[in-house]
Design a protein that fits this description.
Helix content is 0%, strand content 30%. It is mostly beta strands and 120 residues long. The protein has a domain at 11-72. The termini are far apart.
Length: 120
C-alpha cells in the first residue's frame, strides 16, 4: 500500500549574516570602494525543509552589503570611511576648479513626413 509513496526532504546549510555591535562606523570595501562595510556575525545553520534547526558554525566578519564581500574579523582591517579628504590632499591657494557650463539640450530634429504614409 505504501510502495508508491515518496517523501521529498530538503536539507541545506545556508549562511546567514546579521549586523553585530562593533564600533558602528562604516568602513571602505576593498572590492567596490563603497563605505558600506560593517562588523557582522556570520552563522551557518542546519535546515530541513527550509526550517532552521540550529547554528553549528559562528564567526565575526567584516561584511559589505553592496557587493557581498566578507573577511574574518582578525585577518583584515578595512579603512574607516570619512567625508574629509586624505591628509596628503592639499588645495593650492588661488586655484579654483573649472566651472562646468550648464547642460542645454539640443532642439529636436524637424519632423519629416513621407508622402503615402500609413493609412493610404
Amino acid at each position: 500500500m505504501c510502495d508508491e509513496c515518496c517523501i521529498c526532504l530538503s536539507v541545506g546549510c545556508p549562511t546567514k549574516v546579521s549586523p553585530s555591535g562593533g564600533d558602528g562606523q562604516a568602513r571602505i570595501c576593498p572590492r567596490c570602494n563603497n563605505g558600506s562595510v560593517f562588523q557582522a556575525k556570520s552563522q551557518r545553520w542546519l535546515e530541513i525543509c527550509f526550517l532552521p534547526l540550529f547554528p553549528f558554525k559562528n564567526k565575526e566578519v567584516w561584511s559589505c552589503h553592496i557587493c557581498s564581500w566578507q573577511a574574518e574579523l582578525g585577518t583584515f582591517q578595512p579603512l574607516i570611511a570619512s567625508t574629509f579628504p586624505p591628509p596628503s590632499f592639499q588645495i593650492q591657494p588661488g586655484h579654483n576648479p573649472p566651472m562646468m557650463s550648464p547642460y542645454v539640450p539640443a532642439p529636436p530634429p524637424p519632423a519629416v513626413y513621407q508622402p503615402g504614409g500609413y493609412g493610404k
